[in-house]
Write a structure and sequence with these properties.
9 strands; single chain; three-stranded mixed β-sheet; 14 helices; alpha/beta
Length: 305
């Protein structure tokens, strides 16, 4: 018999992941969904197939009625608060699966706390944008006790994701460590594209010509971000795809890890400075792709293309 699943956290990523769990997860019980703002949970529930999900009115209800609890929250404080609250009830034998992007120290601390209450934890952060969450094309990183990871895998590749990176048997923090380091690759990609497109504009090559090169040499994320920059998506969106506040949180974690290990990350330092300028220009609506606008400003162009 399949376990009863609950999902906590319905941000840009969580909504799409919930949809795919319901549609492709072979659940034999309705998915229990909970969000701090209940209206968001009610709205998602109304969009999902009838009878395949139900809304919990409280975190305690979601946790107490479930065997496996997925969490996908914005930052370390939110994850800590949620898990601390969840552990106030009886959780013996339950499995917590955290898909949030947090500092590995946070992940390991939570795993220890959960274990002390007779439950288990698997860290399962994901790589991919909200559109990939919606289409089930995320890359899932799984770490924790091997037996617990095996229980989570049926809901990853082929359901919420297209592939798994398997760290079964390794500390949970290894998954979030990879996630933080991996996100610096994305930051540096946006930096490179922003500088390249700005130079192409000012040198006379032209953005369309540069984009042809990017499509040919770097299909995938590079091409997708290049298209976003050219289309002005970085300043026209009502809701960011990768919000600047969350991006700066991730960079801070990366720089903290670098400092602790004696590593220099000059690229991350530059990106953080640009993200700070995006915050000043756009506030919480700013997106990581707004780095392009800042690089344009530094080169004597308008933020908006």
């Amino acid at each position: 018999m399949a376990p009863q699943l609950a999902w906590v956290g319905l941000g840009n990523m969580g909504r799409g992941m919930c949809k795919n769990l319901v549609e492709k997860g072979n659940l034999d019980k309705p998915l229990i969904i909970y969000n701090r703002t209940q209206q968001r949970a009610e709205e998602l529930n109304a969009k999902l197939p009838s009878g395949k999900s139900t809304v919990a009115s409280s975190l305690d209800e979601a946790v107490s009625k479930s065997d496996m609890i997925f969490t996908c929250l914005g930052d370390d404080a939110a994850v800590k608060d949620t898990i601390t609250s969840a552990l106030k009830g009886s959780v013996k034998g339950k499995l917590f699966v955290d898909c949030s992007t947090v500092h590995p120290d946070t992940t390991n601390m939570l795993a220890e706390s959960i274990d002390g209450h007779g439950a288990e934890m698997v860290a399962c952060p994901v790589f991919g944008a909200p559109a990939m969450a919606e289409s089930g094309q995320l890359v899932c990183i799984l770490a924790g006790p091997a037996s617990a990871v095996e229980k989570v895998k049926p809901y990853c590749k082929g359901v919420i994701g297209r592939a798994n990176i398997d760290f079964a048997g390794q500390p949970q923090g290894k998954a979030t460590l990879l996630k933080i380091i991996g996100n610096t690759f994305i930051l540096n990609m946006v930096e490179t594209l922003s500088e390249g497109h700005t130079l192409a504009d000012k040198s006379g090559l032209g953005n369309d010509n540069l984009h042809q090169f990017i499509e040919t040499m770097f299909p995938g994320p590079y091409t997708a971000y290049s298209g976003r920059l050219m289309a002005g998506d970085y300043h026209n969106r009502d809701e960011p795809l990768f919000g600047v506040d969350l991006a700066r949180k991730d960079v801070k974690h990366a720089l903290d890890l670098a400092k602790a290990s004696g590593t220099k990350m000059k690229g991350a330092e530059v990106a953080d400075g640009h993200l700070a300028d995006v915050q000043k220009h756009m506030g919480s609506k700013g997106d990581i792709a707004g780095i392009y606008g800042v690089v344009r400003q530094e080169s004597g162009l308008k933020f908006e293309n």
